[in-house]
Amino acid sequence: MNALHSLSRRFGIGAMSFGNFYGATTEAKSHAILDAALDLGVTHIDTSNVYGMGGSETTIGRFFEQRGASIRDRFVIATKAGITQDADGNRQFRNDLEHLESELDNSLARMKIDAVDLMYIHRRQADMPIEEATGALARLVEKGKAKSIGFSEIAPSSLRRAAAVHPIAAVQSEYSLSTRAPEMGLVQTCAELGTALVAFSPVGRSLLTDTPLAADVIPTLPFLKNNPRFLAPNYAANIAATEKLRKLAQDLGEPTAALAIAWVMHQGSHVIPIPGTRSVAHFKELVRGTEIALSDETMARITEILPPGWAHGDRYSDEQWVGPERYC
Q: Which active-site residues does the annotation give?
């Protein structure tokens, strides 16, 4: 079995929130979440070199430094590289070994560790065959800098091609009650190949929680202020559509976020949600989702409330769609 499948709670921390992506935070708040993770048996930290322009990884590294070197061994650490800029500041994607190794070396230095457990390519380089990109990742394993490899936001067909070159430990993809595209082949292909499906934004960027981001906060967040699901009139429609889920969670005596996490985990033993948060209290609500066994009746009720395709607006804007692979 893929080692990522056997995480104690099959659950991880999406460390994008450590990089101020969804609002300002502090190192102390991020460290409090990592301390809570240790207490609750959560072992997977999923970060990237571009989260907070290295800030997320630096925060993780300082945590290891302050808590003692042995703490590192209690976590499964994943990071990503492949997004960069040209001389004019335009976004580019590079999957060559020179770039990936240089960026990974920087990540290891920031996190004060010798190797990561999982190294992803964050975005595919369109003019490089995925077989070649997989080979570059495999060299990082051979060099002892990564223990396993993966990709973020690739199509099932690309996963099959990559897996023919080297075992792919994980594919990271947005997956939640509001983003169901992985059900069109990715969930199934990951299960077939023994690849973990690492589900980011499993609570719909707050839509699937008791306290969705307020309308006046959206314009202050660079990513969400241009995201179709958070623009008028879609935002109001999505808030209204998810009210019934909040009511169901209330009736069940559970946080809505926990119910959303439980739904994601119900999709397969290989699916690992990695929500992000800046709050220990919210983190505990999210972890609660790992303890909920959803009955057939509750699953049917959730599907009735939020059937596939219910969300208003695409999950990305045209600009945000540059890089992720679409598939059907």
A: 51
User: Which residues share a beta bridge with 84?
Assistant: 92
The neighbour count for residue 215, using CB atoms within 10 Å, is: 12
Helix (H) or strand (E) holding 151, with range, is: strand 149-152
First to last CA, the chain: 27
Measured at the CA of 276, the angle between CA 270 and CA 281, to 5 degrees, comes to 110
- Spatial distance between the Cα atoms of 287 and 306, rounded to a whole number of angstroms: 22
Strand 91-93 to strand 83-85: parallel, antiparallel, or no bridges (unpaired)?
A: antiparallel
Compute the distance between CA of residue 91 and CA of residue 123 in angstroms, rounded to an integer.
Answer: 11
128 φ, ψ (degrees, to nearest 5): -115, 125
HSE (side-chain half, CA atoms, 13 Å) at 292 = 26
* DSSP of 168-217: --EEEEE-BTTB-GGGTTHHHHHHHHT-EEEEESTTGGGTTSSSPPPTTT
Task: Give backbone dihedrals phi and psi of 166, rounded to 5 degrees, phi first.
Answer: -160, 145
Closest CA to 213 of 192, 237, 239, 190: 239
Contact in structure between 59 and 21 (CB atoms under 8 Å): no
CATH T-level topology, domain 3-203+255-294: TIM Barrel (3.20.20)
| E strand intervals along 28-101 | 44-46, 76-81, 83-85, 91-93
**CB burial of residue 293 (10 Å; 0-12, 13-18, 19+):** exposed
Report the predicted TM-score, pTM, of the whole model to 2 decimal places: 0.95
pLDDT 10s digits, 158-196: 999 999 999 999 999 999 999 999 999 999 999 999 999
What element of type H or E holds 244? helix 234-252
pLDDT of amino acid 1: 44
Average pLDDT over residues 284-291: 97
